Amino acid sequence: MTRSLFDESLAPYDAPEPIAPGAMLLRGFALEQAEGLIQAVRQVIASAPLRHLITPGGRAMSVCMSNCGVLGWTSSRAGYRYSPTDPLTGQPWPAMPGCLPDLALRAAAEAGFNGFVPDACLINRYAPGARMSLHQDRDESDLSAPIVSVSLGLPAVFLFGGLRRSDRPARWRLSHGDVAVWGGASRLAFHGVAPLADGDCPRLGRQRINLTFRRAG
Ligand code: SIN
Ligand code: FE2
């Protein structure tokens, strides 16, 4: 088995770890629910398959994505947008299985953001080598709500910078069951994910799944 994923998953959640004003890591916060979250993801992607979206610049993203919830984030040559329907199937996105918004609400509250009711859950699937370049989450109409981001599977290096693209990002390891929450003064912080290192984790094999909850509409 690859290195420390198993060991890390033995560490129970302790307390929020601040990484910037309004931003914190909740290490191990989702560990107990991880199995249910994985089942929920499988259920969603059975009807809204993961796919490589095309950036407005015309390149295929290395991360595969899908969504559940009232709104889903998509990208195409026309730009980024939230849509109530899946452009691939023409159908509404699958509803969020209940365990997802429950976890997001609790994680947000733990980080100091009460009453977080997400209407969008983006599912990001990273294979080894996949990455997400530095960006801001700013397609949401309500920027008073935080972002809640749950990591499952292989560990990743999360890049968390400042409000300018040129701010040098700090690097944080995100492991299976970790949750990152950012809002307030960090809501528009630039962030990204370094190319995923290969590995093999007990539950998800050679992949990382990230769930990003937002109040989009
Ligand atoms: C994102 O910014 O949408 C994803 C971040 C992550 O995969 O941890
Ligand atoms: Fe993001």
Could you provide a short overview of the structure?
This protein is of the alpha+beta class. The protein has helices at residues 5-8, 34-47, 99-110, and strands at 17-20, 23-26, 51-54, 60-69, 72-76, 79-83, 120-126, 132-135, 147-153, 156-160, 170-174, 179-182, 191-193, 208-214. Strand 5 and strand 6 (79-83) form a beta hairpin.
Structure characterization notes:
This protein is an alpha+beta fold and 217 residues long. The chain has helices spanning 5-8, 34-47, 99-110; strands at 17-20, 23-26, 51-54, 60-69, 72-76, 79-83, 120-126, 132-135, 147-153, 156-160, 170-174, 179-182, 191-193, 208-214. It has one domain: Jelly Rolls, CATH 2.60.120. It is built from three helices and 14 strands. Strand 1 and strand 2 form a beta hairpin. The longest helix is centred in the N-terminal third of the chain and has 14 residues, at 34-47. It is globular. Mean pLDDT is 95; it is low at 1-5. Bound molecules: succinic acid and fe (ii) ion. Residues 135, 137, 191 line the site of fe (ii) ion.
Ligands bound, unique: succinic acid, fe (ii) ion
Report on the biggest sheet: 8 strands, antiparallel
Radius of gyration: 16 Å
Spatial arrangement of strands, main beta sheet: 1-2-12-9-14-7-4-3
What is the second-level CATH architecture? Sandwich
**Strand tally:** 14
Can you count the helices? 3
Beta-strand percent range: 25-35%
CATH class: Mainly Beta
> Which superfamily, in CATH terms, is the homologous superfamily?
Alpha-ketoglutarate-dependent dioxygenase AlkB-like
SSE string, helices as H and strands as E: HEEHEEEEHEEEEEEEE
CATH-defined topology: Jelly Rolls
Average pLDDT taken over every residue: 95
| Total number of domains | 1
**Principal-axes shape call:** globular
Q: What structural class do you assign from the helix and strand content?
A: alpha+beta
Q: Which regions are unreliable across 5 or more consecutive residues at pLDDT < 50? A: 1-5
Helix content: 10-25%
Gap between N and C termini: 42 Å
